[in-house]
């Protein structure tokens, strides 16, 4: 039997069972989340077969005849689908470019605040819109942009301009979606970045001050690198949701005048699938979106790893 | 001896009759309701009913039942009932939004899979005459199957769409009710120009495109999307007069007489336009609850303001017409898995809701709780009535199970009665009601998208009616119009 040289330690191989036994309290904490995912995420996958069957809600799924790719063909064969897909991608990219970085900027600004009371009040105020439903936000936006008496049109009229039908004009519609998203969700989005900033060692800032770094340099060289991993993770998650641009938001603001630029996949499927009782068609569309999301997550994760980040998977 | 015998006979007779009375089963018409039964019904309403409700208690005692009514908000109803059906947890009685397209498909599946029961034999067997009258009525026939009824349709009465007008503005400007759409345009022009309240009022407003069908009826003489024109099935866009209607609406829009926001309005935002003095006229339902709530809101805005209807509606090239609509919306079905005894009791409950006695109960509530009788007249106890009637200005929530039209016998408002009367005189009924199958579900939404896109663009001036009309018709045809017409013809022929 060979002897182990001095200074070397034997790396013990722990079986799964022994690891569970050792970390049983940690695994205990994992149970609720695991149960949630099993019940609400994995078990429903059984019903994905609805997309490939002529499903009837009155009969057991196993009794429904197979339809092959019939519902996918119907989905891809409708002009409205491609319009909705184009709009979804455009609106999603707009939100990615303009709305997604906003919480990071806001978190950096909050992090720089010195007055604790003012900071807390500011945080509370910017978190609040998150708790307002899109239906209410839609109503507020309608009131603000109303052609007769809306605030924005009053301002325009005060400057001698003609009133504008903001929500009914295609060229404004996507911008309104992005701006309202920023107003409603940016504050809430700062939480995760602020939490990440608390991990940064305060001594780094003190050293930077000694080295003569101003506030901007401190943000650039300490804060941003300190939260880079979280930014990457959030970006991967966001890219995974590229085809989910906010069903409720678009549904409450959309109207027939802006359908060409504002009809997204979710509202298209709602209108053409669910309202017509076409469950197989709607499931096929949902499966398509999920597949795209999965591909996007894997792709963005691979790219982030190529750039030396830890990734998500 | 004779006396003794007479006494014996008398005693026997009294005893027999007492026993007979004691053994007389508790009946509702021809149905024995001796045994107390429990069952559930699922329907839509924005509030939940509980056993604590006093009117509800009366119904339970009347029919000897423990009745659970699960109310789901109307916007969530379809998902809810579909979930119950798909999971096999189907209540004994449940409503569908028949003849909405998706509800028609669900109904057909329920029927084909034997999940719902034929109620006609029960109605006959137990002498449920109120239900029988409902099912025998002409307006119920589109909802029957060859072997009877698998639903109790909710009777709405005629389509009560009203052409609301600010009556006080008309009076102030000395304007007469328009008799044609040209005159209607002049009335709108006069009001918009005068702007009586200084709000920059628009002319006509309405929630989206749906209510335009009433104007189309006056221009085409037809009702509904799919029409039998000169013996041939077609879509209304191909009927002469439709293009003229679009030209008329486009003119209104370009001249600032049609609300530029109408496409994006819903019922409440459209109502707000007229109750805040920002519109002269409104196309919307003329039901009691809407008329009352709008009148109240308008009074808050301006105590001198007055709302009215234009009746008869202005005449178009085809006359003074509007669409009368489907007279039924929503239906109650019975789960075939339940025993005949339970199904019969559920039907008895519906039969009772159609009686005069129950209609009074649903309108006035209970004496001492919802109303008191003063000098022979029933006066509402507003607070309790609002509590138990969910603040409804109309009737008790269960009233709309199957009998939406019954409120009218209590209505004394001449404006509203006149508008309702016109629906019978000038209403054009659609040729096709309740058509929905897998093929129409596939084609219908595309056709609707094409139709709505072009109609909106024409009216708002984003497309040119003269040069692009043919393009519109061709795109509509290419989106499955002919295939849909085959379905229409098959459906009507089979009916």
3D structure, described in words:
The complex is a heterodimer of chains A (313) and B (495). The radius of gyration of chain A is 26 Å and the shape is flat. The longest helix of chain A is centred in the middle third of the chain and has 28 residues. Chain A is built from 16 helices and no strands. Chain A is mostly helical and 313 residues long. With 495 residues, chain B is of the alpha/beta class. Chains A and B meet through loops of A and helix 3, helix 4 and helix 17 of B.
Gist of the model:
The complex is a heterodimer of chains A (313) and B (495). With 313 residues, chain A is mainly α. Chain A has helices at residues 16-22, 24-42, 70-76, 79-99, 102-112, 116-127, 134-145, 151-158, 170-197, 202-210, 215-226, 228-240, 247-253, 259-262, 265-272, 279-306.
Kindly report the average pLDDT value of chain B: 90
Count of DSSP-assigned helices of chain A: 16
Gap between N and C termini of chain B? 75 Å
Poorly predicted segments of chain A: none
- Please identify the structural class of chain A as seen in this structure: mainly alpha
User: Could you give the order of strands across the largest sheet of chain B?
Assistant: 4-3-5-14-6
Beta-strand level of the residues of chain A, as a percent range?
under 5%
């Amino acid at each position: 039997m060979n002897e182990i040289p001095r200074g070397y330690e034997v790396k013990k191989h722990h079986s799964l069972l022994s690891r569970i036994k050792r970390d049983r309290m940690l695994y205990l904490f994992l149970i609720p989340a695991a149960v949630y995912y099993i019940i609400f995420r994995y078990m429903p996958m059984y019903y994905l077969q609805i997309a490939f069957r002529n499903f009837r809600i009155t009969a057991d799924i196993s009794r429904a005849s197979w339809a092959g790719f019939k519902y996918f063909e119907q989905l891809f064969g409708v002009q409205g689908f491609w319009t909705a897909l184009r709009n979804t991608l455009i609106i999603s990219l707009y939100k990615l470019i303009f709305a997604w970085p906003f919480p990071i900027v806001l978190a950096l600004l909050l992090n720089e605040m010195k007055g604790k009371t003012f900071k807390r009040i500011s945080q509370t105020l910017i978190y609040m819109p998150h708790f307002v439903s899109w239906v209410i936000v839609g109503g507020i936006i309608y009131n603000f942009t109303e052609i007769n008496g809306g605030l924005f049109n009053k301002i325009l009229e005060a400057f001698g301009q003609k009133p504008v039908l903001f929500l009914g004009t295609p060229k404004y519609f996507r911008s309104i979606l992005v701006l309202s998203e920023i107003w409603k969700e940016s504050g809430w989005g700062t939480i995760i970045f602020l939490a990440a900033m608390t991990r940064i060692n305060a001594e780094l800032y003190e050293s930077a001050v000694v080295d003569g770094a101003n506030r901007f340099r401190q943000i650039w060289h300490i804060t941003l690198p300190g939260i880079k991993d979280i930014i990457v993770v959030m970006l991967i998650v966001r890219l995974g949701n590229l085809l989910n641009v906010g069903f409720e938001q678009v549904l409450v603001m959309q109207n027939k005048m802006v359908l060409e630029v504002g009809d997204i996949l979710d509202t298209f499927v709602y209108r053409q699938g669910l309202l017509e009782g076409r469950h197989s068609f709607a499931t096929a569309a949902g499966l398509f979106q999920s597949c795209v999301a999965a591909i996007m997550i894997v792709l963005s994760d691979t790219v982030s790893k190529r750039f030396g980040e830890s990734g998500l998977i | 001896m004779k006396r003794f015998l007479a006494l014996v006979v008398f005693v026997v007779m009294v005893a027999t009759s007492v026993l007979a009375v004691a053994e007389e089963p508790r009946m509702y018409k021809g149905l024995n309701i001796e045994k107390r039964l429990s069952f559930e019904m699922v329907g839509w309403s924005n509030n939940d009913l509980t056993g604590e409700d006093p009117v509800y208690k009366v119904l339970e005692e009347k029919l000897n039942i423990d009745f659970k009514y699960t109310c789901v908000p109307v916007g969530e109803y379809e998902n809810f009932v579909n979930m119950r059906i798909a999971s096999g947890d189907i209540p004994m009685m449940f409503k569908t939004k028949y003849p909405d397209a998706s509800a028609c498909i669900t109904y057909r599946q329920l029927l084909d899979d034997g999940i719902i029961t034929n109620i006609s034999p029960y109605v006959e067997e137990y002498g449920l005459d109120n239900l029988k009258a409902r099912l025998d009525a002409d307006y119920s026939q589109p909802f029957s199957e060859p072997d009877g009824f698998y639903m109790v349709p909710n009777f709405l009465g005629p389509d009560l769409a009203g052409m609301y007008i600010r009556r006080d503005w008309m009076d102030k400007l000395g304007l007469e009710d328009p008799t044609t759409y040209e005159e209607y345009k002049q009335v709108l022009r006069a009001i918009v120009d005068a702007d009586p309240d200084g709000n920059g009022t628009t002319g006509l407003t309405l929630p989206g495109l749906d209510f335009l069908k009433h104007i189309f009826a006056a221009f085409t003489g037809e009702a509904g999307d799919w029409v039998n024109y000169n013996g041939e099935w077609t879509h209304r866009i191909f009927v002469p007069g439709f293009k003229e209607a679009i030209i008329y609406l486009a003119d209104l829009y370009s001249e600032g007489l049609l609300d530029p926001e109408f496409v994006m309005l819903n019922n409440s935002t459209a109502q707000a336009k007229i109750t805040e003095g920002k519109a002269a006229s409104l196309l919307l339902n003329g039901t009691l609850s809407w008329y009352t709530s709008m009148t109240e809101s308008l009074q808050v805005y301006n105590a001198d303001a007055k709302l009215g209807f234009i009746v008869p509606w202005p005449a178009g090239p085809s006359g003074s017409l509007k669409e009368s609509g489907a007279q039924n919306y929503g239906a109650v079905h019975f789960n075939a898995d339940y025993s005949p005894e339970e199904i019969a009791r559920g039907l008895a409950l519906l039969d009772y809701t159609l009686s005069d006695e129950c209609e009074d109960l649903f309108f006035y509530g209970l004496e001492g709780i919802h109303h008191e009788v003063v000098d022979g007249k029933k006066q509402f106890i507003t607070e309790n009535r609002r509590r138990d009637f969910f603040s409804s200005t109309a009737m008790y929530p269960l009233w709309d199970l199957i009998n939406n039209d019954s409120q009218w016998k209590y209505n004394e408002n001449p404006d509203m009665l006149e508008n309702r009367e016109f629906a019978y005189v000038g209403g054009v009924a659609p040729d096709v009601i309740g058509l929905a199958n897998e093929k129409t579900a596939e084609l219908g939404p595309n056709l609707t998208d094409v139709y709505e896109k072009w109609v909106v663009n024409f009216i708002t001036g984003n497309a040119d009616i003269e040069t692009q009309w043919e393009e519109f018709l061709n795109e509509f045809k290419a989106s499955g119009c002919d295939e849909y017409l085959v379905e229409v013809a098959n459906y009507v022929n089979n009916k």
